[in-house]
Here is the input.
Amino acid sequence: MEHVANEELIPELDRDFLKEKEYVFEIIPSEGNILVIIRNFSFPEFYLPSIADLLIILPSGYPNAAVDMFRTNPDVKLANGSWPIAAEPHVMIHGINWQQWSRHIGWRVGRDNMQTFVAAIKKELQKGV
Here is the structure.
């Protein structure tokens, strides 16, 4: 795993989760938020490509502030070539054009963290839509 600068910007529980799962990740402070990029994140067989970078934005006040949506680069489409539902928009973040997945996963203050959010992303992706 590559060395990650700025690890101290996220809670120890989140760092431990990312390392336990052996994700290659990068943490970048950006405009009051913390960008967590998980490199080479695997997507289910419903999607092409099967691997892309995953961006999770931790807002100021995280983990008491809700994490919402996720982003990918390069674009990830359904295997039939169409866009996944609510995943066609793009947004420029930190000099990269990210595909934005509008998946409003409920956030439970005091219970949710990086591990539960990544699990929710995987559950959403398993729907293949």
Notes: Residues 114-125 form the longest helix (12 residues).
